[in-house]
Amino acid sequence: MDRAQLAEFLRHRREALHPEDVGLSRGPRRRTPGLRREEVAQLAGISTDYLNRLEQARGPQPSPQVLGALARALRLGADERDHLFRLAGHPAPERGAGSTHVSPALLRILDRLPDTPAQVMSELGETLAQTASAKVLLGDNDARQGLERITVYRWFTDPASRDVYVAEDHPQHARVFVAELREASVRPGSRAGEVVRELLQLSPEFAALWNEHDVAAKHPRTKRLQHPEVGVMTLDCQTLLDTDTGQRLLVFTAAPGSADADKLAMLAVIGTQSFAAS
Known about the structure:
Residues 34-81 form the HTH cro/C1-type domain. By secondary structure, the chain is an alpha+beta fold. It folds into two domains: 3-87, lambda repressor-like DNA-binding domains (434 Repressor (Amino-terminal Domain), Orthogonal Bundle), CATH 1.10.260.40; 104-277, 2-Layer Sandwich (Beta-Lactamase). The protein has twelve helices and five strands. It has helices at 3-16, 37-44, 48-55, 64-73, 78-87, 104-111, 132-138, 151-157, 170-184, 192-202, 204-210, 259-277; strands spanning 118-121, 127-130, 222-227, 231-241, 248-253. Strands 2-1-5-4-3 form a five-stranded antiparallel β-sheet, sandwiched between helices. Strand 3 and strand 4 (231-241) form a beta hairpin. The two termini are 32 Å apart.
């Protein structure tokens, strides 16, 4: 680990960003060049003190998870992300299919959807980035670690994860999640095999569905979701596919002027309040 070079690289990339680059507003009294440390720390889900120590070349070796979060917060491209990992003494992550690094272009799209539930998912169903509204509607997955970041794993190991969907639709979603996992399991470099082995041991329900060998089930474009404060919503889910990585950008919308659109607007307010309080 090259602490001095890592510190310099982090400072340089932070100072090269503008608030608008990461979806933040520029305050009237801003004098700091680039982003403030606390802004980057919040975007990466780490403490400001920890980032401060890294930038002063006196912090511990950051984990790959922290480095991935910093790469997203600093909007690093693939080459810059690889350089960051090597400076920290870790091998560069794999590229292409199966990569969990979200491109700056996809993150810029998210930044322009602050009041819309939207999130980037890996081909295995791991949540990689979310808007504030998506966190309110679908759950905040930033703090999750390991297999718990993967939707299908949570579905069969954490009953509360199903609460976002209307109960009558649970069987359909379960079949779709298993079918998607089976499809991912034959892709080179996928972690799907690890997920399958764990779920076969933990969930008889998963094992029964897995043994049906279904690969044709697909999510409906229109989904019924629910939230404890605004109730049930019927939302359209549009998917943008990144053909280089297999990552998907999911965007949830409602027809303008509808009751569902009003509920989404309420979610945006709830998300803003939650973000400000954190």
